[in-house]
Amino acid sequence: DAGVTQSPTHLIKTRGQQVTLRCSPKSGHDTVSWYQQALGQGPQFIFQYYEEEERQRGNFPDRFSGHQFPNYSSELNVNALLLGDSALYLCASSRASGGANEQYFGPGTRLTVT
Amino acid sequence: GEDVEQSLFLSVREGDSSVINCTYTDSSSTYLYWYKQEPGAGLQLLTYIFSNMDMKQDQRLTVLLNKKDKHLSLRIADTQTGDSAIYFCAEKMGSNYQLIWGAGTKLIIKP
Fold it and tell me: Residue A13 phi/psi, 5° resolution?
């Protein structure tokens, strides 16, 4: 049973560019959340997708957008990259029917903006 | 407001028990979680506790919740070198979908 997978593992981009990160949820999960983790800090919630809709959003600008596909996989897009966007981007999947909201994480994508 | 706080470091001897503490501010927390993050890796869900429980035990892990003081702890019995990692406390509030996270506690094991 595959867990949560993310691609790519690492990415280097230049300021002003755009980036797309991808996530496949754990088998049986229908909900995907995205988090940004800066070095030495806990994750910060970006948004959550369920039934192909953004269900909740954290305090991130509109440069951060996402999408969920019918197979529950998801993409995170970041436009007009800033140096401060350099971080580990984590995808977590869960089941909407699970009351405990147990979120299972992928290994992350390390984004470096130069 | 939402805030989860943890000590940044904890150092214990191999074989001893480790106790990692966490405080939170929002009384509407419904679930509280402990995650483990090893270097260069994602987050591994260790255990969680529902807010109407005081204690939960799972093999070497014991979670204690003091809802009055808004204090959560994770005890790891017989700490091993493989327990070296950063441990994060997180909370889910009410019907909110997001998790609010602490900054993590780095557990250092001394031989």
Answer: -130, 165
